[in-house]
Amino acid sequence: MYYLYKTQGTCSSHIELQVAEGIVREVHFWGGCNGNLQGLSRLVENMPVEEVIRRLEGIRCGGRPTSCPDQLCCALKEIKAHT
Description:
The chain has helices spanning about 35-45, 50-55, 70-80, and strands spanning about 1-5, 10-20, 25-30, 45-50. By secondary structure, the protein is α+β, with helices and mostly antiparallel strands. The chain has one domain. It has a four-stranded antiparallel β-sheet. A hairpin with a 5-residue loop joins strand 1 and strand 2. The radius of gyration is 11 Å and the shape is globular.
């Protein structure tokens, strides 16, 4: 299923992702650091949701309390809560 998540506190504005059977299938960030976010997206594709959360949750960007990887975890947690 496809999901659209509005990020908070990051340069990216949204994350579009597909999750199927507990596996992250696709991830696309809108805005933010294009090259880094393309790399992040490719790294987590076909990875279990729990593994992505375990590896990326809590990462901060500069002095901000969150980051694009952390916001991806927020999106995945929200998806898990509704499935």
